[in-house]
C-alpha cells in the first residue's frame, strides 16, 4: 500500500472533471519536485487549486492544466487566432480577438513591413494572425509574420464565411490526427479552412453551398464524438445527393 | 472610445458579403430555404398564463397577469390589454438596461396592434361593473435570447400565454348586491379569456434592391438586411396588422406575394399553437383531477369523523379513475394510472402522519412542553387544562422529562 | 355612423372617396435650421427642421461608413382638441420617430457622408388625421432644402376602408372610426413601397385595393412636392441672378 502511494501520480484527479475550488495537489506531500501549471490552475499556499471547470490534464512528467471550452478567449503567446479589424490607428490596427481587451496589430508587423507600405484594411476585415505578446497589464499584441519574418499564410482572409464556435471545438479541429469531421468532409468536398484558437473558424470553397454545408457540419459537431461526427457527415452527404 | 469598441458584437465584411451573395442563389447560411421557418418549440410554465417560446436560437418568455381596474372613460364597458416588453442586456449586448429602446417599443406596439385592432380578444367580456371595474390584462414579454426575429417569437409567446391564462371568476353580491366577490380557484373554475382568432406575425427580411425576400431572419441576417416587413395574419387569411417601418423599398406586387406566403405560414403556426395548447390543457385537467383528489383526501383525514380505511381507499380509487375516461390516449392513461397509484400511497401515508402530528383538536400553544404522546392521552379535558395551567404544565413537564430520561437510558 | 353618403357618394367633409384633402408645402420656415419645411394636408399641419450633416454629438453612436440619421417626432400640446400636456417619449411617438427615421434613411444616401449626423425634427402643429404621412412629406421637403443627397423623393399618404369603400387620406373623424388605416410611403420614381403600416382586420384582396389607392395618393403628393421643389430652386436661381 505504501509503495503504491509513492509511485502513483500525485493526484488521482487527472483526466477527471474538476470544478473551481477543487484542490488538485498538496504540495506539502511532494517536496523537491517541480511542477508546471497551465491554464485554469493556481497555487494557493501549499495547494494547487482549480480556477475553471473542465478536465484536468497531465503531461508527463510534470505539466498540469485544465482543459475546457469557452466562448471567450484568453490570449496566449504563439496562438494563431482570427481577428476582426475594429479601428485603424497610425501605429496599430485595433483587432478584436474575443479577448478581454482589444489586441494591437502594429502596422509594421507584416512581411517586409516599412513605413512606406502600410497595408490598408477596412473596418470589419478578417485577419489570420499570431499572438506575440500576452500579459494581463497590456493589450495583447499580434503579428502577421512568423518567427522568421515570413508572411506564411498570415494576413487577410478574403471571401468565404466566418462563424464563431467555442475554443474547445477549435482546438479539436486543430488536433492531429485530423479531426474526424474535417476528414469525413474532405473525402467528398474540397474546401479551405482557417481555425483560430479563439473559437473563430473561416471556411471557403468554390461553391457557396459547400461553404454552408461545411460550416454547419462543424457547428453541429460541437458535442459529438468522433464516430458520431462521421455518421453526421455521411447523413449530410446522403441528403445532398 | 475603447470601451465602445470592446462592447459590441461585430460582424466581418466576409460574413456580410457571403450572406448577401448566397441569398442571390436562394441559399441561407443556416441551410434553410428562403421561405423555411425555424423550429418552433412551445413550453408552458407551472402557472397558467406563462409561456416560453423558442424559435431557433431566439427565446422569449411571456407572462400574463390580470388586475381589476377602473376602465378608460371613453370605453366604460371594455377591459384593457397592455403589453410590456423587456429587452434585457442578458439577451444581447446591444440591448441597454433601463428604459425600453426604440425596437422594444416597436415590438410591443406591433404585437399590441395585431391583438387589439383586429379585435382578436373579446374585451367586453372582461367588464365586471360598467364604468367601475374591468379586468386589465397585462402581458409581459421578456426576451431571454436574441437569435433574430424577435417579433414573431414574442407574438407567439404572447398568444400562447393568453390562451392558457385563466382569470378568477368574480360576481357581484354582498348585502347591497354591489360588493365584488372574488371566487377562489377551488370554489369556481377560473375563466379563460375569449379569443376569437389568433393574429400571427410573420416577418420577412428584405435584401438587395428589395427583390430578395427571406422569412424568419436570424440574428446575422438581421445585421445585413436592408429592411423588414411584418405581416400579422390569422388563419382565415385576414390581415390584422402590417408593419414595414421604412428601409429598402419593395414593389407592391412583391408585397402581395409575401402576403400569400405569410397567410400560409400563419395557418401553419396557428395549428402548431393550438396543438400545443390542447396538449397542455389536457395535461392540466388530469393534473387538476389529481390535485383535487389530494385536497379531498386531506379533508377526509382532517375531519372529526374517522373514516374507515376501506372507505377512504374506495373514495380515492373512485376519484383517481375518473379522469381516465376522458383520456383518449391509452399510453398516457397508463402513465397516469401509475402516477395516481403512487400518489394514493403517499396520501394514505400522509393521512396517518397527519393524524399523528395533529394532536388534540384544541391544541394549546402554552402546552408546548407536552409531548404529543402525552397530549393525546388527555384529549377530553380542555376545561381542566385551562384552570390548572401553571402547576399542571409543570407537572407534565416533570413527567415528560422523567419519561425522556427513561427513553434515553433505554436507547 | 354613415361615413360615405349612400346616395351622393360623398364623405363627411364633402370629398369623394378618391379625393385627397388640399395639400400645401412651404420651404424655409425655420431660419436657424439647415433645412425646413411646413406641410399641410387639410387641417393637419406639420413643421419639419433638418440639421446636418454635422459632427456626431455622441461619439459612441458614430457609424464609420455612413451617416447617422436621427429623428424626433413630437406633437404640440395645442395640436389636438383636448389641450393636454403630452409627455415626451411615450410609446406612440417613439415608434413614429423610428418609422420616420427608417423611411427617410431609405432615400438619404447615407454612405456619402460617413461619420456625420443628420437630425430631423418634426412637430405636429395641428392634428387632423394622417399626421405621420404629413410628417414624412414635410421631412422630405426639409431634407431637400438642406441639400442632403437623396436617391429619390419619399412621399406618404394614408387610405382607409369605411362603409365598404376605400377612402383616400382619412381625416380625424374617419381615422377614429376604428376602421382599417393603411399608411404607405413610397419612393416616387422607383415606384417602391418603403413604409407600410396597417391595423385592423382586412381581407387580402381589399387590402390590395386600399394599398393601391394609397400609392396613387403618394404619387399625387410626389407630383406636388416636385413642383414645390422646382419652384423653390427657380426662386433661388432668380435671387442669385442667374
From TrEMBL, chain A:
<dbReference type="InterPro" id="IPR012340">
    <property type="entry name" value="NA-bd_OB-fold"/>
</dbReference>
<comment type="similarity">
    <text>Belongs to the RRP40 family.</text>
</comment>
<dbReference type="InterPro" id="IPR036612">
    <property type="entry name" value="KH_dom_type_1_sf"/>
</dbReference>
<keyword id="KW-0963">Cytoplasm</keyword>
<keyword id="KW-0271">Exosome</keyword>
<dbReference type="GO" id="GO:0005730">
    <property type="term" value="C:nucleolus"/>
</dbReference>
<dbReference type="GO" id="GO:0000956">
    <property type="term" value="P:nuclear-transcribed mRNA catabolic process"/>
</dbReference>
<dbReference type="InterPro" id="IPR004088">
    <property type="entry name" value="KH_dom_type_1"/>
</dbReference>
<dbReference type="InterPro" id="IPR037319">
    <property type="entry name" value="Rrp40_S1"/>
</dbReference>
<dbReference type="Pfam" id="PF21262">
    <property type="entry name" value="RRP40_S1"/>
</dbReference>
<dbReference type="GO" id="GO:0071051">
    <property type="term" value="P:poly(A)-dependent snoRNA 3'-end processing"/>
</dbReference>
<dbReference type="InterPro" id="IPR026699">
    <property type="entry name" value="Exosome_RNA_bind1/RRP40/RRP4"/>
</dbReference>
<dbReference type="GO" id="GO:0000176">
    <property type="term" value="C:nuclear exosome (RNase complex)"/>
</dbReference>
<dbReference type="GO" id="GO:0003723">
    <property type="term" value="F:RNA binding"/>
</dbReference>
<keyword id="KW-0694">RNA-binding</keyword>
Automatic annotation (TrEMBL), chain B:
<dbReference type="InterPro" id="IPR015847">
    <property type="entry name" value="ExoRNase_PH_dom2"/>
</dbReference>
<dbReference type="GO" id="GO:0003723">
    <property type="term" value="F:RNA binding"/>
</dbReference>
<protein>
    <recommendedName>
        <fullName>Protein ECERIFERUM 7</fullName>
    </recommendedName>
</protein>
<dbReference type="InterPro" id="IPR001247">
    <property type="entry name" value="ExoRNase_PH_dom1"/>
</dbReference>
<keyword id="KW-0694">RNA-binding</keyword>
<dbReference type="InterPro" id="IPR020568">
    <property type="entry name" value="Ribosomal_Su5_D2-typ_SF"/>
</dbReference>
<keyword id="KW-0539">Nucleus</keyword>
<comment type="similarity">
    <text>Belongs to the RNase PH family.</text>
</comment>
<dbReference type="Pfam" id="PF01138">
    <property type="entry name" value="RNase_PH"/>
</dbReference>
<dbReference type="GO" id="GO:0005634">
    <property type="term" value="C:nucleus"/>
</dbReference>
<dbReference type="GO" id="GO:0006396">
    <property type="term" value="P:RNA processing"/>
</dbReference>
<dbReference type="InterPro" id="IPR050590">
    <property type="entry name" value="Exosome_comp_Rrp42_subfam"/>
</dbReference>
<dbReference type="GO" id="GO:0005737">
    <property type="term" value="C:cytoplasm"/>
</dbReference>
<dbReference type="InterPro" id="IPR033100">
    <property type="entry name" value="Rrp45"/>
</dbReference>
<keyword id="KW-0963">Cytoplasm</keyword>
Automatic annotation (TrEMBL), chain C:
<dbReference type="GO" id="GO:0071028">
    <property type="term" value="P:nuclear mRNA surveillance"/>
</dbReference>
<dbReference type="Pfam" id="PF03725">
    <property type="entry name" value="RNase_PH_C"/>
</dbReference>
<keyword id="KW-0963">Cytoplasm</keyword>
<keyword id="KW-0271">Exosome</keyword>
<dbReference type="GO" id="GO:0071051">
    <property type="term" value="P:poly(A)-dependent snoRNA 3'-end processing"/>
</dbReference>
<dbReference type="GO" id="GO:0034475">
    <property type="term" value="P:U4 snRNA 3'-end processing"/>
</dbReference>
<dbReference type="InterPro" id="IPR015847">
    <property type="entry name" value="ExoRNase_PH_dom2"/>
</dbReference>
<dbReference type="InterPro" id="IPR020568">
    <property type="entry name" value="Ribosomal_Su5_D2-typ_SF"/>
</dbReference>
<dbReference type="GO" id="GO:0000176">
    <property type="term" value="C:nuclear exosome (RNase complex)"/>
</dbReference>
<protein>
    <submittedName>
        <fullName>(wild Malaysian banana) hypothetical protein</fullName>
    </submittedName>
</protein>
<dbReference type="GO" id="GO:0000177">
    <property type="term" value="C:cytoplasmic exosome (RNase complex)"/>
</dbReference>
<dbReference type="GO" id="GO:0005730">
    <property type="term" value="C:nucleolus"/>
</dbReference>
<feature type="domain" description="Exoribonuclease phosphorolytic">
    <location>
        <begin position="20"/>
        <end position="149"/>
    </location>
</feature>
<dbReference type="GO" id="GO:0016075">
    <property type="term" value="P:rRNA catabolic process"/>
</dbReference>
<feature type="domain" description="Exoribonuclease phosphorolytic">
    <location>
        <begin position="152"/>
        <end position="217"/>
    </location>
</feature>
Amino acid at each position: 500500500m505504501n509503495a503504491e502511494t509513492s509511485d502513483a501520480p500525485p493526484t488521482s484527479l487527472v483526466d477527471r472533471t474538476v470544478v473551481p475550488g477543487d484542490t488538485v495537489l498538496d504540495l506539502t506531500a511532494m517536496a523537491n519536485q517541480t511542477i508546471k501549471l497551465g491554464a485554469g490552475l493556481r497555487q494557493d499556499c501549499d495547494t494547487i487549486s482549480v480556477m475553471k471547470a473542465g478536465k484536468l490534464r497531465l503531461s508527463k512528467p510534470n505539466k498540469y492544466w485544465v482543459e475546457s471550452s469557452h466562448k471567450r478567449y484568453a490570449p496566449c503567446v504563439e496562438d494563431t487566432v482570427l481577428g476582426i479589424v475594429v479601428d485603424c490607428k497610425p501605429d496599430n490596427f485595433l483587432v478584436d480577438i474575443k479577448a478581454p481587451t482589444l489586441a494591437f496589430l502594429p502596422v509594421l508587423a507584416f512581411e517586409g513591413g516599412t513605413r512606406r507600405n502600410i497595408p490598408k484594411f477596412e473596418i470589419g476585415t478578417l485577419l489570420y494572425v499570431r499572438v506575440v505578446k500576452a500579459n494581463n497589464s497590456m493589450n495583447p499584441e499580434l503579428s502577421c509574420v512568423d518567427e522568421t519574418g515570413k508572411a506564411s499564410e498570415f494576413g487577410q482572409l478574403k471571401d468565404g464565411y466566418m462563424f464563431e464556435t467555442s475554443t474547445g471545438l477549435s482546438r479539436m479541429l486543430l488536433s492531429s490526427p485530423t479531426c474526424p469531421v474535417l476528414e469525413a468532409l474532405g473525402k467528398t468536398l474540397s474546401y479551405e479552412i482557417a481555425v483560430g484558437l479563439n473559437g473563430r473558424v473561416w471556411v471557403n470553397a468554390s461553391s457557396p453551398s459547400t461553404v454552408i454545408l461545411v460550416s454547419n457540419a462543424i457547428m453541429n459537431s460541437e458535442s459529438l464524438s468522433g464516430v458520431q461526427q462521421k455518421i453526421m457527415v455521411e447523413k449530410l452527404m446522403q441528403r445532398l445527393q | 472610445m475603447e470601451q465602445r469598441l470592446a462592447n459590441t458584437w461585430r460582424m466581418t465584411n466576409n460574413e456580410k458579403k457571403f450572406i448577401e451573395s448566397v441569398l442571390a442563389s436562394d441559399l441561407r447560411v443556416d441551410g434553410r430555404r428562403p421561405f423555411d421557418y425555424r423550429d418552433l418549440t412551445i413550453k408552458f410554465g407551472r402557472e397558467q398564463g406563462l409561456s416560453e417560446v423558442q424559435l431557433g436560437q431566439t427565446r422569449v418568455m411571456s407572462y400574463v397577469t390580470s388586475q381589476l381596474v377602473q376602465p378608460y372613460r371613453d370605453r366604460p364597458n371594455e377591459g384593457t390589454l397592455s403589453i410590456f416588453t423587456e429587452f434585457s442586456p442578458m439577451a444581447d449586448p446591444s440591448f441597454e438596461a433601463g428604459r425600453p429602446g426604440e425596437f422594444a417599443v416597436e415590438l410591443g406596439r406591433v404585437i399590441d396592434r395585431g391583438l387589439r385592432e383586429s379585435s382578436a380578444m373579446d374585451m367586453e367580456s372582461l367588464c365586471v361593473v360598467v364604468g367601475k371595474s374591468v379586468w386589465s390584462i397585462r402581458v409581459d414579454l421578456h426576451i431571454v435570447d436574441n437569435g433574430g426575429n424577435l417579433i414573431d417569437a414574442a407574438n407567439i409567446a404572447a398568444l400562447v400565454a393568453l390562451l392558457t391564462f385563466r382569470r378568477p371568476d368574480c360576481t357581484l353580491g354582498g348585502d347591497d348586491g354591489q360588493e365584488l366577490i372574488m371566487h377562489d380557484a377551488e370554489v369556481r373554475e377560473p375563466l379563460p379569456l375569449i379569443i376569437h382568432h389568433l393574429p400571427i406575425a410573420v416577418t420577412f427580411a428584405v435584401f438587395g434592391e428589395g427583390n430578395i425576400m427571406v422569412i424568419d431572419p436570424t440574428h446575422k441576417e438581421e445585421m445585413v438586411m436592408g429592411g423588414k416587413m411584418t405581416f400579422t395574419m390569422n388563419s382565415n387569411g385576414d390581415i390584422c396588422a402590417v408593419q414595414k417601418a421604412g428601409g429598402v423599398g419593395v414593389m407592391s406586387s412583391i408585397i402581395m406575394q409575401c402576403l400569400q406566403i405569410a397567410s400560409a405560414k400563419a395557418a401553419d403556426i396557428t395549428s402548431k399553437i393550438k396543438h400545443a395548447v390542447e396538449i397542455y390543457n389536457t395535461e392540466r385537467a388530469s393534473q387538476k383531477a389529481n390535485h383535487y383528489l389530494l385536497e379531498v383526501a386531506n379533508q377526509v383525514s382532517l375531519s372529526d369523523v374517522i373514516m374507515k380505511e376501506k372507505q377512504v381507499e374506495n373514495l380515492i380509487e373512485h376519484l383517481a379513475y375518473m379522469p381516465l375516461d376522458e383520456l383518449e390516449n391509452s399510453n398516457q392513461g397508463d402513465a397516469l394510472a401509475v402516477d395516481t397509484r403512487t400518489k394514493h400511497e403517499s396520501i394514505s401515508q400522509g393521512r396517518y402522519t397527519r393524524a399523528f402530528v395533529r394532536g388534540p383538536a384544541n391544541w394549546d400553544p402554552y402546552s408546548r412542553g407536552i409531548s404529543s404522546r402525552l397530549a393525546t392521552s388527555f384529549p377530553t379535558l380542555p376545561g381542566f387544562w385551562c384552570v390548572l395551567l401553571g402547576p399542571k404544565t409543570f407537572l407534565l413537564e416533570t413527567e415528560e422529562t422523567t419519561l425522556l430520561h427513561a427513553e434515553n437510558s433505554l436507547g | 355612423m354613415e361615413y360615405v353618403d349612400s346616395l351622393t357618394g360623398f364623405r363627411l367633409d364633402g370629398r369623394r372617396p378618391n379625393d385627397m384633402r388640399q395639400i400645401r408645402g412651404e420651404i424655409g420656415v425655420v431660419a436657424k435650421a439647415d433645412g425646413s419645411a411646413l406641410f399641410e394636408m387639410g387641417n393637419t399641419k406639420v413643421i419639419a427642421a433638418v440639421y446636418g450633416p454635422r459632427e456626431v454629438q455622441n461619439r459612441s453612436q458614430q457609424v464609420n461608413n455612413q451617416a447617422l440619421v436621427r429623428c424626433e417626432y413630437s406633437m404640440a400640446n395645442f395640436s389636438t382638441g383636448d389641450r393636454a400636456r403630452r409627455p415626451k417619449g411615450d410609446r406612440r411617438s417613439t415608434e413614429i420617430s423610428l418609422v420616420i427615421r427608417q423611411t427617410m434613411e431609405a432615400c438619404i444616401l447615407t454612405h456619402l457622408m460617413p461619420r456625420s449626423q443628420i437630425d430631423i425634427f418634426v412637430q405636429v402643429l395641428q392634428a387632423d388625421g394622417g399626421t405621420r404621412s404629413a410628417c414624412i412629406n414635410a421631412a422630405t421637403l426639409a431634407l431637400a432644402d438642406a441639400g442632403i443627397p437623396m436617391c429619390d423623393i419619399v412621399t406618404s399618404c394614408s387610405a382607409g376602408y369605411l362603409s365598404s369603400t376605400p377612402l383616400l387620406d382619412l381625416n380625424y373623424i374617419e381615422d377614429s372610426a376604428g376602421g382599417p388605416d393603411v399608411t404607405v410611403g413610397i419612393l416616387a420614381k422607383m415606384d417602391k413601397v418603403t413604409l407600410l403600416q396597417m391595423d385592423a382586420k382586412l381581407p387580402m384582396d381589399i387590402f390590395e385595393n386600399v394599398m393601391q389607392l394609397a400609392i396613387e395618393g403618394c404619387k399625387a403628393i410626389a407630383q406636388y412636392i416636385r413642383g414645390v421643389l422646382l419652384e423653390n430652386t427657380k426662386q433661388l436661381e432668380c435671387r442669385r441672378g442667374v
